[in-house]
């Protein structure tokens, strides 16, 4: 019979390590969390600890203790992503991995000990892995999952293959999973260790503090089995909704779309994952169906973001039939990769926002409506030569509608507005950076002209060829 052994990996500074392993010792850093009306510290680095900052104190108190304190809001999604990364590496030692938010991981290593020549050798392999990942963790091997989890909060490294009772009896309540209220009540009864609590009569303990207290103790000491949900690698996501009656309008079936996207968001968020591609299938029974693919410029998981992209797609490709069933499928799922926090550099976040905007415009207007910037080896800064009259200074208005590319104007069209143009006060632009290599620079004089039907036009004269073009129309 194989002896049951659990390996607990406790990450004491998980909220902080999720931001950056390099940031941990560069400055006094704390991570805070808001609960109701209170904002308290949930993690701090050694520099903050030396100042006297402890977990659970108020954020304002921490700032009063250190002027240069760096305070970061807690991001559970980052923590989940770190645990997912850790589980992917630990899967080399056992497939039975349980992740616990705010704690770390529990590994059922019962069947892996013989493969790695003993529990001590396996423990060294795991420690080497977390060292390579630059993760600081406590590692404890014990016969029960709850016992290993409790002991890992008190010991940085421990191997207990038998007689876990002796180790748990001396454990302080702060290392357990019991509520703060229960711990406070036990301290009032002069109880400070798990062993003292266990000596109390079972019936009296259950009557005052609940049956779950007895069950938790039984699981930790191995008197009751513990069932845990094991981590699994990322797989495809699929879901559907059906309508009792045919949905004739988009307003009728759109709530089903929102329901599917919320379900997808919960799945991806629980795994700190995202996707750039989803597939929709709108069915009208077995009569007809419409398939839609929606892509994002970057991996996203939020339902509102995908709904915005889908609406932009539906503006160009509406569903032309009634709908009885909607199916959502996600084949390509990627783990979220958070860059290490940089307190001063924000260009990566800005670049991602621009990419998202560009992709949304392509969905709404079509890929042919937008052109990408091109590189010109002869690029020069734009120079603007303007007349200094008051009329020229005021001639800075820009039209609502831009004509791209500018439309050439015929002589008849020019005759209609030429009298309204102040030819002595142009807005002159001379530049070379936008021209293909080897071509002459652009020299344009811009004017605001009015037609006989009182429309305002933005026109320019190409000085090198003396040709006139329409560039925009004012509202």
What is the fold's blueprint, element by element?
Layout: E1 6-10, H1 14-17, E2 29-35, E3 38-44, H2 46-51, H3 59-65, E4 70-73, H4 76-90, E5 97-100, E6 104-108, H5 119-132, E7 138-142, H6 145-152, E8 157-159, H7 164-169, H8 180-188, H9 194-198, H10 202-209, H11 211-221, E9 237-247, H12 250-270, E10 273-284, E11 288-300, H13 303-316, E12 323-330, E13 334-335, H14 347-365, E14 383-384, H15 390-394, E15 401-408, H16 411-417, E16 427-431, E17 442-450, E18 456-462, E19 467-473
Parallel strand pairs: 2-4, 7-8
Antiparallel strand pairs: 1-6, 1-7, 2-3, 5-6, 9-12, 10-11, 10-12, 10-13, 14-16, 15-19, 16-17, 17-18, 18-19
Helix pairs in contact: 6-11, 10-11, 12-13, 13-14
Textual characterization of the structure:
With 475 residues, the chain is an alpha+beta fold. The protein folds into 3 domains: 1-18 and 75-233, Alpha-Beta Plaits; 237-335, DNA polymerase, Y-family, little finger domain (Dna Ligase, domain 1); 383-473, no CATH class. The protein is built from 16 helices and 19 strands. It has helices spanning 14-17, 46-51, 59-65, 76-90, 119-132, 145-152, 164-169, 180-188, 194-198, 202-209, 211-221, 250-270, 303-316, 347-365, 390-394, 411-417, and strands spanning 6-10, 29-35, 38-44, 70-73, 97-100, 104-108, 138-142, 157-159, 237-247, 273-284, 288-300, 323-330, 334-335, 383-384, 401-408, 427-431, 442-450, 456-462, 467-473. A 6-stranded antiparallel β-sheet has the order 14-16-17-18-19-15, with no helix packed on it. Strands 5-6-1-7-8 form a 5-stranded mixed β-sheet, sandwiched between helices.
């Amino acid at each position: 019979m194989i002896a049951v052994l659990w390996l607990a990996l406790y990450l004491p500074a998980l909220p902080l390590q999720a931001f950056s392993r390099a940031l941990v010792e560069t400055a006094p850093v704390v991570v805070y969390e808001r609960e109701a009306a209170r904002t308290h510290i949930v993690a701090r680095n050694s520099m903050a600890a030396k100042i006297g900052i402890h977990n659970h104190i108020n954020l304002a108190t921490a700032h009063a203790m250190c002027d240069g304190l760096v305070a970061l809001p807690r991001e559970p999604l980052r923590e989940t992503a770190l645990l997912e990364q850790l589980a992917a590496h630990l899967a080399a030692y056992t497939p039975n991995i349980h992740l616990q938010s705010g704690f770390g991981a529990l590994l059922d290593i019962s069947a892996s000990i013989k493969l790695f020549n003993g529990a001590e050798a396996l423990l060294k392999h795991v420690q080497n892995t977390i060292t390579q990942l630059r993760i600081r963790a406590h590692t404890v091997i014990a016969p029960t999952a709850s016992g290993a989890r409790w002991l890992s909060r008190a010991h940085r490294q421990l191997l207990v293959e038998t007689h876990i009772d002796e180790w748990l009896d001396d454990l302080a309540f702060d290392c357990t999973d019991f509520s703060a209220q229960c711990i406070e009540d036990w301290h009032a009864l002069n109880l400070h260790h798990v062993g003292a609590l266990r000596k109390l009569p079972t019936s009296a303990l259950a009557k005052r503090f609940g049956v779950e207290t007895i069950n938790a103790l039984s699981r930790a000491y191995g008197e009751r089995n513990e069932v845990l949900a094991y981590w699994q690698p990322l797989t495809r996501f699929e879901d559907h909704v059906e309508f009792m009656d045919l949905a004739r309008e988009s307003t009728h079936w759109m709530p089903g779309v929102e329901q599917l996207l919320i379900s997808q968001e919960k799945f991806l968020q629980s795994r700190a994952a995202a996707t750039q591609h989803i597939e929709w299938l709108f069915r009208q029974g077995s009569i007809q169906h419409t398939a839609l693919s929606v892509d994002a410029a970057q991996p996203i998981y939020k339902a509102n973001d995908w709904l915005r992209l889908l609406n932009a797609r539906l503006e160009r490709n509406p569903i032309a039939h009634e709908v009885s069933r909607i199916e959502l499928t996600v084949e390509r799922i990627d783990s979220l990769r958070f860059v290490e926090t940089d307190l001063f550099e924000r260009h990566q976040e800005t670049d991602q926002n621009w990419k998202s905007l560009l992709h949304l415009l392509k969905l709404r207007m079509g890929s042919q409506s937008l052109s990408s910037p091109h590189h010109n080896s002869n690029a020069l800064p734009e120079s603007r030569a303007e007349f200094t009259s008051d009329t020229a200074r005021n001639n800075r208005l820009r039209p609502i509608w831009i004509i791209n590319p500018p439309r050439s104007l015929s002589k008849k069209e020019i005759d209609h507005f030429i009298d309204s143009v102040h030819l002595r006060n142009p807005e002159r632009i001379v530049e070379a950076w936008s021209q293909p290599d080897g071509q002459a620079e652009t020299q344009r004089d811009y004017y605001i002209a009015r037609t006989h039907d009182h429309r305002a036009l933005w026109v320019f004269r190409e000085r090198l060829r003396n040709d006139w073009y329409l560039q925009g129309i004012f509202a």
